Each structure stands twice: as structure tokens, then as C-alpha cells.
Amino acid sequence: MPRCEDVLVEEHLRELAARLRGPARLKSDLLTEARHGLLDAVEAYREGGVPPTEAERRAVAEFGSPAQLLPSWQAELAVGALRGLSLRMLATAAVGVIAGDLTWQGSSWSGGSRPPAVYLLLSTSVDWIWAGSLLLAVAGLLVVAASARSPRPGLAAAQRAVGAGLTGTLVLGMVAGGALFVWSIGLWEAALTWPPMIIGMVVAGGAYFSLVRAARGWLLATVR
Question: What is the pLDDT of residues 121-165, one digit of tens each?
């Protein structure tokens, strides 16, 4: 429980916390820094002879209202969310591009009859989706780096565009990859017992789960 002299400060921080959306760690860092700044200001006022409650009121008023603070803080959280999404997509797409075909090499059916043309088209589409995701992830990291150096208005639009692109390719990748997997099982029942295929399923499932969480975090931090 906060001390009685901390109530006004804590109420202010709780209001800020309730209205901020974004990566939990970065949000916690922002609020911790704000708490330290507010308590330092309260202590300075009290050393000057100001009563505790009035010292808190002055510190909070001097620090700024939620309306004044939230736009810049939320923008920082949105950048952090895009950074996290880009990094996860970069890692996942790189693995997908490099190791995607390895799940089939040496399989009992790899030397059999050629799959249908539509299946091959779908397989190629999945490869292109991974490649596009990789490029978008790199673009996202470049935009984040540029935003850290110069928070220009045009960069906010670029952040939204890249984030939307990453989220869109994630949806496409999940749909196309799932369809390819189900079709593969339909063509080759042995795929269900092929160890590289099983490992690929587990890894892809974990990667998609992580990416969905990151995309959701970006959406919450950006759409407000």
C-alpha cells in the first residue's frame, strides 16, 4: 500500500498506466522513471517547507497532465512495439526462408510423382511471403532507428505502414502455410510421421504464437 503522502502521485501514475498501451517492459520503464521524477520533486518541495499534500499537488501539476504526457509516451510505446514485431518477424522469416525446404529433404515421397501445379504455386507463394516479411522486418528496424534519431511526422506514417504490412503478411503466412501443411498431409500421409515435418510444425506454431502476440501489441499501441 502507498504511504498517505504518496497518494496523489500514485493516483496520477495509475491513471497514466491505465491509458497507456504497448510493450509491458517499456511501459514499466516509463512509469518507473515518472515515479522517480515525481517523488524527487515532492521531496524538493517538502525540503522547502511545503506541506506533504501540497507538495504532491505541485509536483503532479508541474509534471504534466495525462493529456500532455500521453501523446509522446504512446508514440514511444508504438515504436517499441514495432521494434519487437520487426525483430520477431526477422528471426522467423529468416528461419522460414533458410530452413523451409529442409523439412522435405530425404523424405520417402520426395522422389515420387510431381505434386499438382496449384500446390507448387501455393508452396512458392509461401516462400515469397516469407521473403516479403523479411524485407518488411528490415524496413521496420530501419524506421525505428530513424525515429530514434529524428521523430518527424512522416516517420509516424512510415511506422504505421510497415506495421500494417507486417501484420498483413503474418495473416497471409498463417493462412497459406496452414493450407500448404494440410494439403501436404492429404498428398503424403507419411508426412505426419516424418520427424523434420513434426519439428517444423512445433517451431512454426511457436513462432506464429509469438508473432500474433507481437502484432496484437503493436495494434494496441498504434490504434487509439
Answer: 988 898 899 899 999 999 999 999 988 877 677 788 899 999 999
> Cα–Cα distances in Å, from 146 out to 29, 70, 120, 142, 223?
22, 21, 39, 6, 21
For 10, what's the count of Cα atoms within 13 Å in the CB-facing half-sphere? 7
pLDDT of residue 103: 67
Total domains, the chain: 2
Residue 149, exposed/middle/buried by CB under 10 A (0-12, 13-18, 19+)? exposed
What pTM was computed for the model? 0.83
Which residues, in sequence order, are CB contacts of 201 under 8 Å at separation 6+? Answer: 181
Q: Residue 91 is part of which domain span?
A: 76-222
Residue 171 lies in a domain: yes
Same domain (yes/no): 100, 52: no
